[in-house]
Amino acid sequence: MTKDAKDTSVKKYSIDHFFNTESIISNSISFDEKKVLYSSDKSRIYNAYMVSLEDNSQQQVTYSTDNAVYAVSFFPKDNRFLFLSDKGGNEILHIYVQNENGEAIDLTPGENERAVFFDWSKDEKSFFYGSNKRNPSFIDVYEMNIETYESTCIFTNNAGYEFGSISPDKRFISLAKVSNLNDSDIYLYDLEFDRLSHLTAHEGDVNYFPQNFSEDSDSLYFLTDENYEFKYLKKYHFDTNQSVEVAKENWDITTIFFSSDYHYLVYSINIDAKTEFKIINLTTHQQIELPSLPEGQIVNIQLSKSEELITFLLNSSNAPSNLYAYYLESKELKKLSDTLNPEIDPKELVVAKVIRYPSFDGLEIPAIYYKPVVNAGEKAPALVFVHGGPGGQSSTEYYPLFQYLANQGYAILDVNYRGSSGYGKSFFSAADLKQGEIDLEDCIQAKNFLREQDYINGERIGIIGDSYGGFMVLAALAFRPEEFKVGVDIFGVSNWERTLKSIPSWWESYRDALYKKLGNPFTQTEYLRSISPLFHAEKINKPLIVLQGANDPRVLQVESDEIVAALKKNNVPVEYVVFPDEGHGFMKMENKINGYKAVLEFLDEHLKA
Ligand SMILES: CSCC[C@H](NC=O)C(=O)N[C@@H](Cc1ccccc1)C(=O)O
User: Fold this and answer.
1) ipTM, interface predicted TM-score of the complex
2) Which of 178, 367, 410, 471 is the most core-located residue (most Cβ within 10 A)?
3) What residue stretches are annotated with the Peptidase S9 prolyl oligopeptidase catalytic domain (predicted)?
C-alpha cells in the first residue's frame, strides 16, 4: 500500500447514504427559552422544525413539498415565527408569519416583490424588513407592526444603499454604499430630521461596512479594512465624529452582534477557511470560554433574551451541522440534533486538510484537500474544485458531495484561488479584471499538488465547479484544453456579456462593483467575449457534464443550453441535466441525488475508467 493512501478496508457508501444525512441551517430561540426553531431538509426539502430544550423532542412545523422554507426567527413575545420562501428557487423571497395554530400568512405578497428580514425593534412591537415592491432595483426599508401586520416605509432607497442596522431608539438607520468590491462607505439616515449623512469620507479603496448601534444609539460599530489587510471592528461616535478601534485579529472579523442587554459582544472570525467565534463579556472585558466541543466550526450563534443561553450550529468537513445549546451560568451543554445518517460510520469519512501550494508566480494558494479512499497500489483520479464568486470562499464545512466522491475513490482539492475572500484585501483584489485568466492559472497549478501525492494518477485530473466555478470549468476546457481530462459544470456562466447585462434587478446596488471586477458588458464587450467560453467553444475537446436549474435567476438556463449545443455540434461528449424546479443551487434532495449520481456515472466513465 502506498504510504499516504487511506486504509483500504473502508466501507463504500451510496449517494443515498450521503444525502439521507440531514442538513440544518439557521436557528432561533423562543421567547420563553424552551424551544429552538431551525430549518432542516429531513422532509427532503427545507422545512421549519422546532426542538424542545427540555426533552429534545423534535417537531416539524411547516410541510412544504415544493418550495424550500427558511426559518428566520421566533417572535419576541410569543410562539409565532417568521420564515422565508420563494417559488422553485427564483429567489423572489417573501416573508411569511406562521401563527401558533399553524396557519401561515404571506406578509409581502407582491408577485415580484423580493423581501428580506432585517431585525426586531427593541420595543418588541414591530420588525424591520426590506422590500423592492416600489422599485424592483432598490430595497426600501419598512417597519411592520406585529399585531396588525400593517407596514410603513421608513426609508426610500433611490440610490442603491444596502441596509446595515437600525438604532435601538429607532432614530437612525445605517446604510452601506458599495463603489466596488474593495471600496464601500457608510451613510447614516436620521429619521427624525429626514437627513442622510456620509460618515466615511476617504480616499482610495477602503471598505466600511455598518454593523450594530450602541445601546444608547449614540455610536455605530462598523467593520473596515482601513490601513490593514483584514477587516476589523471600530466604533464611530456621533458626538465627536471620531472612531476608535474595538477589536482586531490577524484574519477578517466577519459578523458582530450584541446580546439583548448589551452585556456581551459576539463576533466571528474567518480563520483559514474556518469560522471561529469570540464572546466578550463587556463588563469584565474577558472572553467567555466555550465548553469542549468536537473539532469543527461554530456558525450561526444566537444568544437568548435572558443572556443565559447560547445556541449554535457546529460542523466540520466530516460532520454535518448539529444544533447545540449551552447555558453560560451552569455550563451545561446539550446536543439537540444528530444529523449524520446512522448507517454511515463517521470514522470512515475523510477529514479535510488545509494545504498551500505555490502558483505560477510564487503566490501561495490555500486549498482544502480531501484524500481519496483507495485500494492498496491503486492510483486515484482527482478533481480540482472551483467555488463560486467572484470573491467567494470554500471552507472546511461538511460537503456531502465531496465525502461521496472521496468515498468513491476521487481526491478533491477545493481551491481558494486568488480573488477569494478571507485571505486579505490584496489577495481578494488580485484577480480584478483578470477573472477566468489569472485565477484559472491557480487552479491549473493545483494539479502539481495532486501529482505529488504518490497514490494519485496525475493523468486523470478533472475540474468541477459551480456558478462562477462552473465558468472556470468551461474556461479551463476552452482556453487550456489539455490541462484537465473532464469538466463538471454546475450552473456555470458561459457568456459574461449576457450574464452581466441580465443580472437580477435586486443586485442593482452591486452592478457597478461587479462590472469593475469582471468587466462592463456595455463598454468592454470585446474583453468579456474574449474570456467567455461560449465564444471559444470550438476549442473544447474534453468530455463535459452540465447541471442547470431552470429557474436560476443569476445564471440563466440559456447559459448552459448554448454551451451544451456548441459541444454537441462539435461531437464532444456532453451530458446535460436540467432541473425544472430548481434555481441557483439544489434545494430538493431528489434533485441532488439524481444530479450527483449523474456526475459520478460521468466521472466513472470518462475519468476513472
Ligand atoms: C451581488 S454579488 C454577485 C455575485 C454573487 N457572488 C457570490 O455568491 C453570485 O451569485 N455569483 C454567482 C456567479 C455570478 C456572478 C455574476 C453574475 C451572475 C452570476 C456565483 O458564483 O454563485
Assistant:
1) 0.95
2) 471
3) 402-608
